[in-house]
Specification:
Helix content is 40%, strand content 18%. Strands 2-1-3-4-5 form a five-stranded parallel sheet, with helices on both faces. The chain has helices at residues 12-24, 35-43, 64-73, 91-99, 113-124; strands spanning 4-8, 28-32, 52-55, 81-86, 104-107. The protein has a single domain (4-71, 78-106), classed as 3-Layer(aba) Sandwich (Rossmann fold). The two termini are 24 Å apart.
Length: 131
C-alpha cells in the first residue's frame, strides 16, 4: 500500500535523503522546512491528511514539540501517525514526545535512512514502537 508521507526538517540534505527512500518504495512525499510551513499547508481547505508525519524537534521558529501541540489542538492530523525524527535522544525528550501523543521516536544519529524508512512503515502499519 502506498502512503502519503510528510517530512518536516530544516536540514534540506536529510529531507532529500529520506524522501528518496519513501519515493523509491512508491509512497507520496511532501517536504516541509519547518513547523509553520506544515501547519499552514494542513490548515488549508481540503488539505491532504497524511498517513505519517516525520517531524524534527530542533528547527528555527517552531519546535517539533510546538508543532505537534498545534496539530493536536487544532485536530489537523487526527488520523496521521506522528514520528519524531531527531538528534535529541535525552530521556526528557522521549518522555515529552510520549506525553504529546507521538506514535514513535527515531534518533537520526543512530539510524540510517533505510532504517528510518522501515521504522516509519512499521509504525504506520500498526507495529510496535522501537527506538
Amino acid at each position: 500500500m502506498a502512503y502519503h508521507v510528510y517530512l518536516v526538517d530544516d536540514d534540506r540534505f536529510l529531507l532529500d535523503l529520506y524522501a528518496v527512500k519513501f519515493k523509491n518504495a512508491g509512497h507520496e512525499v511532501t517536504l516541509f522546512s519547518g513547523g509553520e510551513e506544515l501547519l499552514a499547508a494542513m490548515r488549508k481547505e481540503g488539505a491532504v491528511v497524511p498517513d505519517v508525519i516525520l517531524l524534527d524537534i530542533i528547527m528555527p521558529g517552531m519546535t517539533g514539540f510546538e508543532t505537534l501541540e498545534a496539530l493536536r489542538k487544532e485536530s489537523l492530523a487526527k488520523k496521521s501517525k506522528i514520528i519524531f525524527l531527531s538528534n535529541q535522544g535525552q530521556d526528557s525528550d522521549l518522555e515529552k514526545a510520549k506525553q504529546l501523543g507521538a506514535d514513535g521516536y527515531i534518533i537520526k544519529a543512530s539510524a540510517i535512512p533505510s532504517e528510518v524508512f522501515a521504522e516509519a512503515i512499521r509504525i504506520v502499519e500498526g507495529g510496535t514502537v522501537t527506538h
